[in-house]
Fold this sequence. Notes:
- Helices cover 60% and strands 12% of the residues.
- Helix 2 runs antiparallel to helix 3 (74-100).
- The protein has nine helices and six strands.
- The protein is an alpha/beta fold.
- The termini are far apart.
- The strands form two sheets. Strands 2-1-3-4 form a four-stranded parallel beta sheet, with helices on both faces. A two-stranded antiparallel sheet has the order 5-6.
Amino acid sequence: MGMKHDLLVRGVKVLNVIAVTVPFLCGWLGYYRGTLYPEEVIQKEDGIIIFLFMIFYLVFSRIYDAFHLSLQRISELTYSQMLAAFFADGIMAMIFSLLGRGMINLMPLLLCFLGQTAFSALWSLLAHRWYFRKFPPLRTIIFYQQEEKMQNLISAYGMDLKFQVVKTCSVQEFLKQGLSVIDDSIQTVFICDLQSHERNRILKYCIENRKIAYMIPGTGDLLMSSARTMHMFHLPLMRAERYRPVPEYIIMKRIFDILVSGTGLILLSPLMLIIAAAVKSDGGSVFYRQTRLTK
């Protein structure tokens, strides 16, 4: 893993962005531009519209991890890219509606989305196969505290294409042999349920020797991840506390809850009355009273 790997993968990702943009470009040039600007010849606007779509698509792709070739299956890549394209198309539809000062015809965008889905599926299939042919699985060691299950998870989720488990090591073996169990051929380290002292030793060694380390966080790690960094006594400190939202958020949430529940109650009240009348007409009591069966 190095600069060559990053450049090649980045180039493949750029191809995906171009492939997904092509159907949108066809929809813009073939329909929406003539509808929104029927008598104008525009060029700068074309570039702005395409640039906006690409930005939105990239943002949503990062949110949904649509480009993680090495860590996701083909179906997961396709689904993530479909979500990113769907939301990007939706935002562009709202922009088109603002430009046209009215609701636009969504059928061309729907056809664009179908084309984007086809391109995404094709790209995911080809890019996934290319990646694992180009880059062999990483030689991996797993450290565990009590029972080693990570190897089964790697196989169950199809990650054996990414990680080749060549060694497993319990904490007892690690205490006997030390860091020598991580030889030069090891590229990736999984740390599962180790105590902080042993875990920190392995992490420092991996960072110093340019090895990739994956760690399952404990409860303390999750609490520390939400801590706020601050300075006190001329020292960097981390402040951890229970979640405490701002008063404005609580007030707005309560107002929203009341409005939604009240609206739902009003809308569904006729249905409730109909059900109550049906129960009453069937001989049953509308209001059921709980009776105690034990003394």
